[in-house]
Specification:
The chain is α/β, with parallel strands linked by helices. The chain has a single domain, classed as 3-Layer(aba) Sandwich (Rossmann fold), CATH 3.40.50. The chain contains 13 helices and 11 strands. It is globular and about 85 Å long.
Length: 365
């Protein structure tokens, strides 16, 4: 290659780099920044969750990257039940710090059924399990930490475990996800992508967090997919926002695609095990009167998706070294009511889950 040819090649390579640099500088000088989280966060939370998050001194607050979390010191009274969050951000008593030398710590992660919505806080399965283990193991300082959060999916649970495990160092981790939240429609992105967005400032790629050019590309992509909007779901539906596709399915998929649930559950178990904890998977029970996810005139809850979630729980929880609790079978053909509504177990229901967990934990000793 001659010197002239090398010069032309070098110029050809340098020109687009220079143009991109000038474009980046111009966008920065103009103050351009595209962060979809600022526009979409109200929408992705939406509805009743949005009301809980915006309630002054309530029990939920926004949280990057998990979208929302429990508010330390929060308090809410509903239907005669008082929910209180301790200063560490959990329901129930404070967690001992440091963990006692003779401590046995169980961390329960899940959604509102683990949190104990519609249940006396002193009778959730976390509290009942703690009492049962303390009676059986008087030589141990037993703590069962209720890490359930209203509205959570397995994607949020995995992120929460990554944050909690290094400090809490649980001996066992109980996972109960999949009853209904995973089936809720996604808005623009599913929960995994939202966690990346809120963790990096931009969807899916940390480079986007610092590059104005890539942010401009994301804004163009957003316009192609549909306008980024702000407001809760009811407001958007009134304004004619197209939430479903022509087949009546969620336009952007579901909060956790069913094909991702099993792999996320497996990753969550593996994360617990990487910190030396035993993983216990609880298949989520539902009453015969199934929950409804109503958008317009359609109920988006699907029995086949729930069945696949139960299959995934059984497959992951039955792997060597793990424990599996088939909660739906514990609730089958009961003579007494075990649910407070179409999703949440009542106090007797929580007691059944606690008894099964206690057996599973004590059997391995």
């Amino acid at each position: 290659m001659t010197r002239a040819m090398r010069s032309r090649v070098a110029l050809g390579l340098a020109t687009p780099v220079l143009l991109l640099g000038l474009a980046e500088a111009a966008l920065r000088a103009a103050g351009f920044r595209f962060n979809p989280t600022q526009n979409d966060l109200r929408f992705v939370i939406g509805g009743a969750l949005l009301e809980l998050i915006e309630e002054p001194n309530g029990i939920l607050e926004r949280h990057p990257p998990r979208i929302w979390t429990l508010r330390p010191g929060g308090r809410r009274e509903e239907l005669g039940i008082v929910y209180e969050i301790n200063p560490q951000g959990f329901p129930g008593p404070a967690i001992l710090d440091p963990k006692p030398a003779n401590g046995l710590r169980v961390l329960c992660l899940g959604d509102s059924s683990t949190f104990g919505l519609r249940c006396d806080p002193e009778r959730t399965f976390s509290r009942v399990l703690e009492s049962a283990l303390a009676r059986a193991l008087p030589e141990r300082r037993v703590e069962v930490v209720n890490g359930g959060i209203i509205g959570y999916t397995i994607a949020q649970g995995l992120q929460r475990l990554r944050e909690l495990a290094p400090d809490l160092r649980p001996d066992a981790v109980v996972l109960q996800f999949g009853a209904v939240n995973e089936q809720f429609p996604a808005v623009k992105f599913d929960d995994e992508e939202w966690i990346r967005i809120l963790g990096t400032g931009s969807p899916g790629n940390p480079w986007v967090a610092s590059s104005r050019i890539l942010q401009a590309v994301m804004k163009l992509r957003a316009r192609v997919r549909g306008p980024f909007v702000q407001g809760n779901l009811d407001d958007l539906l009134r304004r004619g926002f197209r939430y479903l596709d022509e087949a009546g399915e969620p336009r952007f998929g579901r909060r956790v695609p069913i094909e991702r649930f099993e792999s996320l559950l497996e990753e969550t178990c593996a994360t617990a095990e990487s910190f030396g904890a035993r993983a216990l998977v609880v298949a989520p029970p539902l009453p015969p009167a199934r929950p409804r996810i109503v958008i317009g005139d359609r109920n988006l809850f699907r029995e086949d998706l729930y069945a696949r979630i139960l299959d995934a729980c059984r497959a992951v929880g039955s792997e060597l070294g793990r424990r599996y609790v088939d909660a739906p079978s514990l609730f089958a053909d009961s003579a007494e009511p075990l649910f407070a509504d179409t999703v949440h177990p009542n106090e007797p229901g929580h007691a059944r889950i606690a008894e099964a967990l206690a057996r599973a934990l004590l059997e391995e000793r």
